[in-house]
Amino acid sequence: MSALPAISAPPIRSTQQQRTHWSRHFDQPKVLEPTRLSIEGRLPPGLQGTLLRNGPGVFDLPGGTRTNIFDGDGVVVRAQFSHGQAIGQVRPVDGPDMKTERKAGRARFSAFERPADRWVDRLGARIKNAANTSVMRWNGRLFAMCEGGPPTELDPNTLETLGETNLNGVIPGAFSAHPARVASRHTTYNFGIRYGIVSQLDVFAFPDGGDARRLISVPLDAPRAMHDFIATDHHLVFFTLPLKIDLARMVLGIGAIHHNLHWTPSLGVEVIVVPIDRPSECARFSIDPFMVWHFANAFEMGGTKLAIDYVRFPDASGLDFVRTGRQGMVSAAVQPGLLHRATVDWKRKTFETQPLCEASVEFPQVAPSNAGNTTGPIYMVSHSSETVARNGFFDTIMRVDPNDGSEQAITLGDRQWVTEALFAANPQATHPDEGWLLSTVYDETQHQSYVAVLDAQRLDRGPLAKVWYPQAVHWTFHGIWTPQ
């Protein structure tokens, strides 16, 4: 299968603002009670488990419609696969901030783009917890997450919202939507950033069958933003970004996050490496500026060297797309994100990076059995052409194997918009990369959504099955696959 066309600098530009067709993807979804889904094709017998995804689905809120993708309230989507059949469900998250605004009939909290309606509510930089980015399972519990606040617990059986939780005081503030699991330690890790006179990076551990704990709090040199991190068997790696928050304006209630978030190249990127067994001995050093939203994988290279696979952007111009994407309006530039591998020597404090492919990609994933300990195929979403890339959204699923440099890509059809492809392992596998990729796809031509089931090793086989929801499902950021 041929590789995708390279989409490289200079950035792809629209000469004028134009409205794209996939904007209906952000229409408010209908609540769907557990319903048997229709299946086109045949589900693999070994595909038994639950796909959960979360994304911004409710934009028409008290005080007016939100226009920024980040500002919609979370809506969780479920597809349960068992014995060749599938059950689907769509349910909004109804956390305390949502209830407070509904009762008040106005925006009581500031969000990424829209500040609270009244000045008095803006004071103190209280950010709304929209619970709209991803989900996490831990010790039989289920949480919806948004990095602006603590996790929101859901009933794992019904998806009913149980409420915010700080897990008995372990989480003092924000909680990232990107936990990372280290299977060899039977532990999931995560982080949050507390902003203040001295901002803090809080690092948390969630052991299987044990109690959550804060591993360490690392003081930051500036109130920076960070979206994701990555873990190896022995280290947690953070790239704190040159996105600086104007805390004084936020505390005084002047504007929302976007108005006070500034790309500051002079800060550079600070690399922070936390040894899991000796967290107080963390290494840190600064490198040239770049932007990263998501990591793919990391592993130990021997000695003090780590390999870090991530999607690298030259700057944060993608935030402009986030501001207008819900309306399908594309303006300015779409910068390509390129899959890179960095070699980090945390003792010598060196950083080298090089691209692994030339396609414009995002939302990288690996097989869970490869995560943190070895290299293996990376699954991503991409654009089939520069014309599609101009519109900003993804229509292609891609597989890149760093071991041999091979690339595969599949475009599911005209105006079929894909989400990140999650790996579901084949329980009968003899190789860690035997399994299926699951991507929730919006078919714009029918205004309806389906889960595409793909052979992770042979994308050219096309969808083995399409599992159709009876309606369009809103665009979702991230999700998890849990085997039965």
3D architecture notes:
With 484 residues, the chain is mostly beta strands. The strands form eleven sheets. Strands 4, 34, 35, 36, 37 and 38 form a six-stranded antiparallel β-sheet that branches. It has a five-stranded antiparallel β-sheet with strand order 3-9-8-5-39, with no helix packed on it. The protein is globular. Strand 28 and strand 29 (350-355) form a beta hairpin. The model is unreliable at 1-19 (pLDDT under 50). The protein has five helices and 39 strands. It has one domain (12-483): Neuraminidase, CATH 2.120.10.30.
The CATH class: Mainly Beta
Number of strands: 39
Low-pLDDT segments: 1-19
Our measurement of the CA-to-CA distance between the termini, rounded to an integer number of angstroms, reads: 33 Å
Mean pLDDT figure: 91
Per CATH, what is the topology? Neuraminidase
Radius of gyration: 21 Å
Approximate helicity band: under 10%
Strand content: 35-45%
What is the 3D form?
A: globular
The CATH superfamily label reads TolB, C-terminal domain
| Corresponding CATH architecture | 6 Propeller
Whole-number tally of structural domains:
1
Quaternary status of these chains?
Answer: single chain
Tally of helical runs = 5
Q: How does the major sheet shape up?
A: 6 strands, antiparallel
Which terms would index this structure?
484 residues, mainly beta, Neuraminidase, six-stranded antiparallel beta sheet, five-stranded antiparallel beta sheet, 43% strand, globular, disordered N terminus
